[in-house]
Amino acid sequence: MAFTDAAVDWAALEAAAVAAMGKAYAPYSKFPVGAAALTEDGRIVSGCNVENASYGLTLCAECALVGALHLGGGGRLRAFYCVDGKGNVLMPCGRCRQLLYEFRAPGMQLMTTQGIKTMDQVLPDAFGPDNLEENR
Ligand code: THU
User: Fold this and answer.
1) Which of 13, 34, 70, 116 has the most CB atoms in a 10 Å sphere around its CB?
2) Catalytic residue list
3) Exposed/middle/buried for residue 90 (C-beta within 10 Å: 0-12, 13-18, 19+)
C-alpha cells in the first residue's frame, strides 16, 4: 500500500472534474472534457480542454491540469478522475497518460471505465525521467 493516510475522496474528484468540464472550450469537437486530480498534500487541481481553430493545437484537459499543478506550487498526483460531457468516466489519451506519468506520486490511482487502476497499469513500461538519467 503506497498511501497510509486518508482514503481518496473519489466523489470530490468527480465533482471537480465535472465542474472543470463545464468550463471546456470545445466548439469544434463538441466534446467537452474535465479532469481533476488529488495532490499528495491534499489539493485538488483541475483542467478542461481548450480547442483551437487550428485543430491540432487543441489542449487536452490534462494539459491544463498539469499547468494548474505547477502553478499552484507543484507536487505529485495521487489520484485522477476525467469525465466527458455526460459526466461519464473518460480514459486519458495516450499523450495525457505520459503527461500524468511525469507528475505521478508512487502508487498513483486513476478512475477508469474498469474501476480504479494504477498509473503503471494504464501506462505500462513507461518512458520517464529515469530513462534520461540512464544514458547521461
Ligand atoms: N480530450 C481531452 O481533453 N483529454 C483526453 O484525454 C482525450 C481527449 C479532448 C481533446 C479534444 O478537445 C476532445 O477531447 C476530442 O478529442
Assistant:
1) 34
2) 62
3) buried
Helix (H) or strand (E) holding 75: none
* 126 touches ligand 1 (CB under 6 Å): no
Q: At what angle do helices 61-71 and 10-21 cross, to 10 degrees?
A: 110
Q: Is 112 in the pocket of ligand 1 (CB under 6 A)?
A: no
Name the amino acid, one letter, at 94.
G
Closest C-alpha to 101, from 10, 9, 93: 93
Residue among 25, 28, 48, 49 to mutate when testing ligand 1 (max atoms within 8 A of CB) = 49
What pLDDT tens digit does each residue of the chain (136 aa) get? Answer: 444 457 999 999 999 999 999 999 999 999 999 999 999 999 999 999 999 999 999 999 999 999 999 999 999 999 999 999 999 999 999 999 999 999 999 999 999 999 999 999 999 999 999 999 977 6
Output the residue whose Cα is nearest ligand 1's atom 4.
Answer: 60
The Å distance, Cα 121 to ligand 1 centre, comes to: 21
Alpha carbon of 12 to ligand 1 centroid (Å): 22
